[in-house]
Amino acid sequence: MARMPRGTSSGRLREYLLTEAEDFRNTYGHIDSKVFDELSGPVQLLAAGKPVQIRRYQLPDDHHERNAGQPHDVLVLDAANVLHQSA
């Protein structure tokens, strides 16, 4: 996982995650239309500003929550773009 682009604030995490999800979908979605559809789920949630679950390892390397727990911790980026640990 890369670092967030220079000048990207923590409030722009959704934009970063959307770019990563789109890149991943565009890289592997060509395998099959079902794969593309499955990989489009996170893209659609992020683009619509809806809550989305992510894993801690999906955070950018320089995000302050990246090393605050276990890599597979489930986090939720809510509609207000606030990151929470899932209960």
Uncertain ranges? none
Question: Quaternary status of these chains?
Answer: single chain
SS field, number of helical segments: 2
Spell out the helices and strands N to C: HHEEE
**Mean pLDDT across residues:** 89
- Report the principal-axis shape: globular
Taking the sheet with the most strands, its summary is: 3 strands, antiparallel
Number of strands: 3
**Rg calc:** 13 Å
What is the rounded distance between the termini? 25 Å
Helical fraction equals 25-40%
Q: How many separate domains make up the residues?
A: 1
> Which structural category fits the helices and strands?
alpha+beta
The strands making up the biggest β-sheet line up spatially as 1-2-3
Q: What proportion strand? A: 5-15%
Task: Give structural notes.
With 87 residues, the protein is α+β, with helices and mostly antiparallel strands. It has one domain (10-85). It has two helices and three strands, in the order H-H-E-E-E. A three-stranded antiparallel beta sheet has the order 1-2-3. Strand 2 (74-77) and strand 3 (83-85) form a beta hairpin. Helix 1 (13-28) runs antiparallel to helix 2 (33-47). The longest helix has 16 residues, at 13-28. The protein is globular and about 35 Å long.
In short, what is this structure?
The protein has 87 residues and is α+β, with helices and mostly antiparallel strands. The chain has two helices and three strands.
